[in-house]
Amino acid sequence: MDVNDEIRASGKRMTRTRRAVLSVLEQSQYPLSPTELYAQLKKHKVAIDLVTVYRNLVTLKELGLVTQLELHQEGQVRYEMREGRQHHHHIRCKSCGRIVDLLLCPLKKLTAVIEKETRFVVGDHSLEFSGWCPRCQ
Amino acid sequence: MDVNDEIRASGKRMTRTRRAVLSVLEQSQYPLSPTELYAQLKKHKVAIDLVTVYRNLVTLKELGLVTQLELHQEGQVRYEMREGRQHHHHIRCKSCGRIVDLLLCPLKKLTAVIEKETRFVVGDHSLEFSGWCPRCQ
DNA sequence: TCGTTACTGCAAGTGGATTGCACTTACCAT
DNA sequence: ATGGTAAGTGCAATCCACTTGCAGTAACGA
Ligand SMILES: [Mn+2]
Ligand SMILES: [Mn+2]
Ligand SMILES: [Zn+2]
Ligand SMILES: [Zn+2]
After folding, report:
1. Confidence band of A71 (pLDDT split at 50, 70, 90)
2. What's the confidence (pLDDT) of residue B104?
3. CATH number (domain holding residue A120)
4. B94 and B113 co-located in one domain
5. CA distances from A113 to A8, B80, B93 (A)
6. What CA dihedral angle connects A108, B115, A103 and B93, to 10 degrees?
7. How far apart are CA A105 and CA A60, in angstroms?
8. String of b and e for B123-137 (b: at least 16 CB within 10 Å)?
9. pTM for the complete prediction?
10. Which nucleotide is nearest to B70 (CA to C1')?
11. What is the per-residue pLDDT across A114-128, written as a single tens digit (0 to 9) for each?
12. Are both B91 and B52 inside the same structural domain?
């Protein structure tokens, strides 16, 4: 079941703008903020409103097709396609803002410890590193 | 050197409002958002502007007297006193919003691995768990 | 006590994100 | 293929956390 089918199967529709949003996300090498995505769409001459970008991102997130990252140092949110890639985290350069995947999650084992210690039922976690990338050192 | 001295030593002044902000933070069992802190101050009949709360928090953070948490799921920031307590992380209840300390950091060992893999120089990290607390399960 | 300058309050401004509503369009049933 | 319905869109307004400008206030060292 590809992205198109996923959308249709949920009762959503595949529209001109939704296709364009997905296309930009699929081609991006790094997670995009709504504003960046909007700028990309303008560059590709796609007539779309920023609100529509936001609403599509919400929908795609609800469908589990994109992941929302909260790189809160930035005061904005970013999205990346979920397809294929597994759960992972990111590191962000404090100087140039570059964001790189960390293909690991060291926290799976920790959940049991936390649940025992706090009596919470652990759901999600967010983890983000920041530092200086090779170019900016 | 206590909090008062730290402030004075840096050329800052110990004002009525700053004392009040510190007092509320010191008595809180959990990290406070600027708005919550402001509400607490009102309850204690402290005449203060929300802007002054914000500015004091910035100052106290710069002095290293408070730690700013970025529990980004909330869309707001929280502060807690730093005094004594060491680096740690938090878990937040998705239902009632309660925030609890996790007295551990599993990431120190990981820094070397990440630096080797990404060639970044790692600075900070932020880590936050969410789930359901005992009462909300 | 006085003068410097950190600090405060009030008002306005920013920027990311959300909401209301009328209009449009995808797409399923006929 | 067509038409009806409900999802989706654009535009404007709004929200909300947070910041900035500035004139007036007050901390505190000389
Ligand atoms: Mn990624
Ligand atoms: Mn804490
Ligand atoms: Zn993880
Ligand atoms: Zn840590």
Report:
1. confident
2. 81
3. 3.30.1490.190
4. yes
5. 41, 24, 17
6. 40
7. 24
8. eebbbbbbbbbeeee
9. 0.92
10. D17
11. 999 999 999 999 999
12. no
Burial (Cβ within 10 Å: 0-12, 13-18, ≥19) of residue B107: middle
Q: Does A132 share its domain with A92?
A: yes
Of the pLDDT bands very low, low, confident and very high (cuts 50, 70, 90), residue A72 is low
Long-range contacts of A1-8 (CB under 8 A, 24+ apart): A3/A65, A3/A83, A6/A63, A6/A65, A7/A63, A7/A65
Q: Pairing state of beta strands A89-93 and A99-102?
A: antiparallel
Nearest Cα to A105, choosing from A82, A89, A92? Answer: A89
B74 and B38 in one domain?
yes
pLDDT over 90 at B90, yes or no? yes
Q: How many domains does chain B have?
A: 2
Are residue B79 and residue B16 in the same domain, yes or no?
Answer: yes
Range of the domain at A90: 86-137
- The CATH number linked to B71 is 1.10.10.10
Residues lining strand C at under 7 Å (Cβ) are A 8, 13-16, 33-35, 50-51, 54-55, 58, 75-77; B 7, 11-13, 15-18, 47-49, 51-52, 55-56, 59
Average pLDDT over chain B reads: 94
From B94, B125, B132, residue closest to A129, measured CB to CB: B125
